[in-house]
Amino acid sequence: MSLERFINQAVSSWMSNEGPHSDIVLSSRVRLARNLADYHFPLFLKANEAKDMTVQISEGVQDGYQLERLEMEQLSPLQKRVLVEKHLISPYLADNAAYGAVLLSESEDISIMINEEDHIRIQCLAPGLQLKEVLEKANELDDAIEGKVKYAFDEQRGYLTSCPTNVGTGLRASVMIHLPGLVLTQQLSRIIPAISQLGFVVRGIYGEGSEALGNIFQISNQLTLGKSEADIVDDLISIVHQIIAHEKSAREVLANTSSIRLEDKVFRSYGVLTNSRIIETKEAAQCLSDVRLGIDIGYIRNISRSILNELMILTQPGFLQQYAGGPLHPEERDIRRAALIRERLQLEENC
């Protein structure tokens, strides 16, 4: 399979678009956790209950949405790993859900996980800073499902969930944000505690416990109880706007005070990506971050900034093995990663 065809088939179509503040905010996501009142929670769910509930939930959204259902037990470990790398399912669903499934839209901007930690995890994604838009879409899906089933809901506590940290709205709103300026100027370490005090958390690219590869961070709410969904999203948008302003200021300082050093850093990383024959995940992510910064500042003009979004996914272990057509040892993956990056950059330059 050619790389161009593989990219078209592998990368979610919503990722090829740009949204507001796409130079810094890569994506927005809203996730709603829900459970059904008439079934045991997932930890105690029986096989026949799980299958019956999967059908009910699927039918609840099929009238207005064309969604494909994938059963976890029918997917290979590699296929599940690819879905995790695309942020379409959680590692928990891939590894622990005996009767799990996911409903996906064609553009993959809608993902409904079934029998994960909760019965239902409704997830909507969009490029750039579009939290209000994805919340509206998630609420529409939520209403469609609730029209067919009865949710576990308490008048005082709100939506009941397996984990107490999700009780209330059941909402997790998050943005994926690229912050090389704040990292290089060593300001991020001062900003993170302030964000935490406001009830939000900064994590790595794959959420809790993951590393912030390539200066990409995930910012999301910690509190789900005591605030409305709209208030949580409004507060996160306000925080993100402030971070965007700090990041732009940091980039301006770097460009004005360390221009030649910054330009050298960008083009050294570009040289590594275009010439390496073997490259590990962490080094690739850092070099891609430097090149993306160079594109945003204007040092590099012949490459689209969306290439970072693509290559951060395409160079993950699952995708590399899918492209290769089978399992690869770590060193083989590093060799494949370097080759894929070189070929992708050459394809971009030719276009």
TrEMBL record:
<dbReference type="Pfam" id="PF00217">
    <property type="entry name" value="ATP-gua_Ptrans"/>
</dbReference>
<comment type="function">
    <text>Catalyzes the specific phosphorylation of arginine residues in a large number of proteins. Is part of the bacterial stress response system. Protein arginine phosphorylation has a physiologically important role and is involved in the regulation of many critical cellular processes, such as protein homeostasis, motility, competence, and stringent and stress responses, by regulating gene expression and protein activity.</text>
</comment>
<dbReference type="InterPro" id="IPR022414">
    <property type="entry name" value="ATP-guanido_PTrfase_cat"/>
</dbReference>
<feature type="binding site">
    <location>
        <begin position="203"/>
        <end position="208"/>
    </location>
    <ligand>
        <name>ATP</name>
    </ligand>
</feature>
<dbReference type="InterPro" id="IPR014746">
    <property type="entry name" value="Gln_synth/guanido_kin_cat_dom"/>
</dbReference>
<feature type="short sequence motif" description="RDXXRA motif of the pArg binding pocket involved in allosteric regulation">
    <location>
        <begin position="333"/>
        <end position="338"/>
    </location>
</feature>
<keyword id="KW-0547">Nucleotide-binding</keyword>
<dbReference type="InterPro" id="IPR000749">
    <property type="entry name" value="ATP-guanido_PTrfase"/>
</dbReference>
<dbReference type="InterPro" id="IPR022415">
    <property type="entry name" value="ATP-guanido_PTrfase_AS"/>
</dbReference>
<keyword id="KW-0067">ATP-binding</keyword>
<keyword id="KW-0418">Kinase</keyword>
<keyword id="KW-0021">Allosteric enzyme</keyword>
<dbReference type="InterPro" id="IPR023660">
    <property type="entry name" value="Arg_Kinase"/>
</dbReference>
<protein>
    <recommendedName>
        <fullName>Protein-arginine kinase</fullName>
        <ecNumber>2.7.14.1</ecNumber>
    </recommendedName>
</protein>
<feature type="binding site">
    <location>
        <begin position="27"/>
        <end position="31"/>
    </location>
    <ligand>
        <name>ATP</name>
    </ligand>
</feature>
<feature type="binding site">
    <location>
        <position position="87"/>
    </location>
    <ligand>
        <name>ATP</name>
    </ligand>
</feature>
<feature type="domain" description="Phosphagen kinase C-terminal">
    <location>
        <begin position="24"/>
        <end position="250"/>
    </location>
</feature>
<feature type="binding site">
    <location>
        <begin position="172"/>
        <end position="176"/>
    </location>
    <ligand>
        <name>ATP</name>
    </ligand>
</feature>
<comment type="similarity">
    <text>Belongs to the ATP:guanido phosphotransferase family.</text>
</comment>
<feature type="binding site">
    <location>
        <position position="121"/>
    </location>
    <ligand>
        <name>ATP</name>
    </ligand>
</feature>
<keyword id="KW-0808">Transferase</keyword>
